[in-house]
Amino acid sequence: MKKGEQPQFSARWWKNSQPKGLKSADGLESALKAYETAKAKLESSGEEADAKDAGGALDGIDKAVKAVLSEAAKTKGNAEIDATTDCLKKFDRGSTQERKWIQEHTKAKGGDDDDDSNFADPDAYKTYLITVMKRLRSSGEMNFGFVLGKKAEDHRIALHKSKSAKALGTMLAKETGIHLMTWGIARSSEGRAGEMVLELEGRQIPGMGKKGARMLKKFKPLPFKKLVLLVDGQEVADLDDPDDSDSDEAAPDAATQTRALTELARRIQAVADPAQKADLARMATQANALLRSNELTDAEERIDELRAALDEAGVPANGGNGAPQDVSGGSPAAFTKARQAWSATRKRVEDEIEKLRTAIVSAYQDHDIASDLEASFRTKVLGTVLQNFDDRLSEKLNEVAGATDAAQRKKLIDEAKGIMDGYRTYVSSAPLLADLDDNPFEPLKIRQTVTTTLSALEQIVH
User: Fold this and answer.
1) Is residue 245 included in any domain, yes or no?
2) Are 428 and 284 in contact, with CB atoms under 8 Å apart?
3) Distance of CA 393 to the CA centre of its chain
């Protein structure tokens, strides 16, 4: 098994990755096979009994993992065994996610007697949408009724596995007072993630594709973001609606989204459960990567999902740390010193990682993998960190120091603050930095170093 490999709930993965010589390895392979079988059965049926069996199979994996860890602990000085131990210790986090999947899937596959909602209440409707759309994504097909009002927040769709589509539309019209109605069969699109297919049995209402997408965005985060319309089994374009007075939301702004993500990253630190905290941190890292690649729409959706997850976890909006402190300062000379401080910090981080690289290469110098390990470390570790702690802040602070126009100077300062927010998000959410700081070869203080510098720069960049 390779160092840093992540556990998978797959018997095939374990069979291919397990080190030789562990008698308990077969037990884990059998446990993984049993869980794969139980999970497939639950995915097909959604029955409570099958959910119980899947949970029991997960318990079997937990026991098998402990047996392998116990045996591996008796073997010293074997790099492959050590890598296996590190990997298996992460199984408990994955087990938590699998149990969550079992719970959600069983609920999604269950009966739909709870499909009634107060469709006139936006909050109740949003809760309903999340539930039935997860059910649609899981089951693949449901009947739908759809009414369209004037604004995105007015539109309503109702989904049900057994109630007739036209009856759903009639029910919506009665509850909402909106009579622009249609109905049909809704499907989860195969191979087109985030798209919900509406096969129309009622009439095609002008603008319903665009309006439906606005509704989905209004009540996000949802499993679907776009509507695909079918008439007589063929995909059709949206009909133009000259009376459409609603407008699409403004395109997401990178600086605004970065500040929002930074605030959510602070909230993550208040999460007590380690597994849940790790999952939220991964979402923040993904959102930050999307922001850096300028995929702003996708980043906005991931940020919304992260915010919803934090709200569901009951984490207070300020992360329990109070409102941000106001600061003052910022002469041209101070910005020059700030630029020099960030450049020095970046160099210090590079030197720290270089120390670790030297220690690791020294430890494996007698192994055939030493040269490959060194090359991989420079590319995947050093390169990744320095890419996230780049020169943008130094360059921006240099621009601020030379700015004479007040409005331009303020704009540049705001941009510098956005860059700093991005760095903070990476510090608080990147698993790579945590692994580097806590490594067994040469423990580092990258997160502390960067956080200290950014806190000092806050006194200037405001």
Assistant:
1) no
2) yes
3) 26
Does residue 319 lie within any of the structural domains? no
How confident is the model at residue 247, as a pLDDT? 65
For every residue of 187-209, DSSP letters joined together read EEPTTSTTEEEEEESSPPPTTHH
| Token pair for 376 | 């991989």
The verdict on residue 144 lying in a domain is: yes
Does this model's pTM top 0.70?
A: no
Domain housing 160: 122-236
Distances (CA, A) of 49 to 55, 59, 257, 286: 10, 15, 44, 36
Left if phi > 0, otherwise alpha if psi is -120 to 50, otherwise beta: which for 26? Answer: alpha
186 alpha-carbon distance from chain centroid: 26
| DSSP output for 449-461 | HHHHHHHHHHTT-
> In 375-433, which ranges are E strands?
none
Is the pLDDT at 330 greater than 60, yes or no? no
- Helix segments in 190-331, DSSP class H: 208-218, 254-268, 274-292, 296-312
Is residue 131 included in any domain, yes or no?
yes
Q: Are 60 and 34 in contact (CB under 8 A)?
A: yes
CA 334 to chain centre: 38
User: How many secondary structure helices (H) and strands (E) does the chain include?
Assistant: 18, 6
Residue 313 — φ and ψ, nearest 5°?
-80, -5
Report, as an integer, the average pLDDT of 278-304: 83
Q: Are residues 50 and 155 in the same domain?
A: no
User: What distance in Å separates the CA atoms of residue 144 and residue 221, rounded to the nearest whole number?
Assistant: 20
Domain count, the chain: 4
What pLDDT, in 10s, does the model give residues 30-88?
Answer: 999 999 999 888 877 777 788 888 888 988 999 999 999 989 888 888 888 888 988 89
* In the block, residue with structure tokens 């927010």: 421
Residues 276 and 384 in one domain: no
Specify burial of residue 206 (Cβ count, 10 A radius: 0-12, 13-18, 19+): middle
- The CA-CA-CA angle for residues 143, 146, 150, to 5°, reads 170
Give the torsion through C-alpha atoms of 396, 400, 403, 404, to 10 deg.
Answer: 160
d(CA 53, CA 372): 44
Q: Over 90: is that where the pLDDT of 286 sits?
A: no
**Same domain, yes or no, for 209 and 263?**
no
CA–CA distance, 459 with 462 (Å, rounded to integer)? 7
Joined tokens for residue 374 = 């060194």
- The residue type found at 418 is G
The answer on pLDDT for 327 being more than 60 is no
Q: State the DSSP H helix or E strand holding residue 12, giving kind and residue range, or none if neither.
A: helix 11-17
What are the C-alpha distances in Å from 133 to residues 45, 126, 129, 137?
18, 10, 6, 6
